[in-house]
Amino acid sequence: MSKRYFIETWGCQMNDHDSEKLAGTLETMGFEVTQEASDADVYLLNTCTIREKAAEKVFSRLGVIRQMKQNRGGEMVIGVTGCVAQQEGAQIFSRAPYVDLVLGTQALKSLPDMMDRIEQRQGHQVNVDKDPDNHLFPVKQISRKAKLKGLITIMEGCDNYCTYCIVPFTRGRERSRPVADIVAEARMLAEQGTKEIELLGQNVNSYYSTVSFAELLRQLNEIESLHVIRYISPHPKDFDRDVIETIRDCPKIATNIHLPAQSGNSRILKRMGREHTRNHYLEKVSMIREILGNQCSLTSDFIVGFPGELDSEFNETVTLLEEVGYDRIFSFMYSPRPGTGALKHGDPVPQSVKHERLQILQKRQLEIQKQRMEARIGQEVCVLVDAIKLGERFPVSGRTRDNLLVHLDVGELAPESLFSRSLPVTITGAGVHTLRGRLGVS
Ligand code: SAH
Ligand code: SF4
Ligand code: F3S
To answer: What is the CATH number of domain 380-439?
Structure first.
């Protein structure tokens, strides 16, 4: 019987995709995936360290995995991968000696050699080297979870060093893949039935090789059987007029513009090392609305309680929500990260104040969101059906080009027959997080 692997993934889409790369690597070595974690011969924990007590959470989870290993008489290879692995390296073994391998974010291709050495009983294996070609991973060796939606790395790393953020330390310097490789991968996926691709990078629109991000989008838009092209995570500084006009002119490119502001106050933005002031940011929003009109949704990330943030400065974040009118936000309490620039300011906003600010921000956003969602009733949109859940009240759901979730009323049609189709839909109802629609337009 072949040996089995199980991968548990935390964190962002880049980690999801790294897990697909690690899974594919293990499969080429003869392993098979198992859904039963306790049956695994190899258990990889792919970790994230963006906020909070990431390392603590990893060690507490490892305690549970250790138990599974003991139940198997020690016959389980435990590996820690991802951003905590990159950050902690071999120190992981001193706290958790039952871990067999620690594999950083930029050394994915070394997994087979490490596994061989473990097989030969050579003890703890660690590789947190920064392979400059890590982003050039062999495409055929990726084991993808979903058929309808395909993840594609276009760049890795971050050179921005925002003062609160650990990503430049865990993912290294920015590197972009050659355009021809990306287009070839997208074509291959499209030929296999993929309808939606999501381009990945820590600063995905900072992509630069022989062509710009806008030109890459234009080339991908030409691939016939693709329906939707998404990309994550973008940086506000790289949304120029060319990119936004490209999105307007290329019908497959998603019209959700994620424009992470982090704060609405220019002094805090400066301390965060973001490149924009409040006014620059608002100018960008106007440019986007001028070009895309109300065809686009706008989303953002925010951090509350950055060291030194005054009440009045936090209020400017609230008024930014009101001025921009976001369709969704992702908001977090500031969390000090090791080695980052903001540590020199300490962590002076008390936890209770951070918590209160987060509540205020989220409550205000939900009010704004409700209004914006309701304003969509009556709109005619195109929805790519990406989920069928039989037994539920609305078994068919999908997403609009600007990434809003729509539950569909499909009348007498068989739900399964609609999967992976792009359909014309009229919006008939709205909640705070989802829309309802019926098939057909007037
Ligand atoms: N590259 C993206 C961000 C990726 S991290 C960008 O520049 O926008 C995702 C989000 O996590 C960030 O946008 C930020 O809002 C949040 N975040 C990052 N570091 C954080 C920290 N130390 N504390 C709280 N939130 C943080
Ligand atoms: Fe982190 Fe800033 Fe880089 Fe985004 S741009 S990953 S927030 S350092
Ligand atoms: Fe987390 Fe690393 Fe992604 S810290 S958010 S897994 S880049």
So the answer is: 2.40.50
